[in-house]
Amino acid sequence: MPGTDLLKARYVTHRFSRHVHDGYAIGLIVSGVEEFDYRGTLHRAAAGELVLVNPDAVHTGHAGVPGGWAYRMLYPSIDALAGIAAELGAPFGTPHFPEQVVRDEQVAALLRRAHEAAERGDALAASTLSRTMFARLLSRHAAPRPAAVLPAEGRRAVRAALDVLHESLVDPPTLEGLAQAVGARPFALLRAFKAVTGLPPHAYLTSLRVRQARRLLQSGVRPARVAAEVGFTDQAHLSRHFKRIVGVPPAAYQRAAGA
């Protein structure tokens, strides 16, 4: 499906730092056990189970057993899943997965077959199987997105702060400067920001930088230039944060993207 990254990997010692995705992270544990913190709750996913991570939900990832874990992941955009949900007649809005680890043998088999078809370069089979898999996943495991509980003023300040950070990757403001820009007090903004995103502004900025770095790498920009354009001090700084969030170094990601 357009705009959907795929990852096949086995990790033993690697640990994903706390981060968010702008889309979904949906995967099948092939072997071993992955443990991950999701919004403050520790989950364990074993072989045959599905991992379901919602957009902008803070999570980590590390081995749950000494031998690590292997999985096949898909990262569809919000628009992609919302479009399929609309075709199924679901209420308009962003689909939400209330459970982060589920066991569904039919969906798992479809995900694996779609992933393997993409790996072979069989675009027709991959797109057909992935669309079928997502439709079944949504119909069985999705629910309406829960309403925000933060006061309207706090949500407004956070939305404005996010806009500022998106526009200030290379030269971001201090917390005080960010609060002043959105008309809030620093500690009040910090509390509201963490309540909405799960991360403090500086950590969320790192996720934004990595997100933009992925787009630039996909377009063929060299990693050293990418580092400068998204605000990392050098290529090593980019590589360190990129691997902690994406799971592979920038150059390897760029090669896999065919850029």
UniProtKB/TrEMBL annotation:
InterPro entries: AraC-bd, AraC_XylS_family_regulators, Homeodomain-like_sf, HTH-like, HTH_AraC
The keyword DNA-binding belongs to this UniProt entry's keyword annotation: yes
Recorded superkingdom: Bacteria
Pfam families for the chain: AraC_binding, HTH_18
Domain HTH araC/xylS-type residue range list: 159-256
Alphabetic keyword roster: DNA-binding, Transcription, Transcription regulation
KW Ribosomal protein (keyword) present: no
Protein name: AraC family transcriptional regulator
Biological source species: Nonomuraea composti
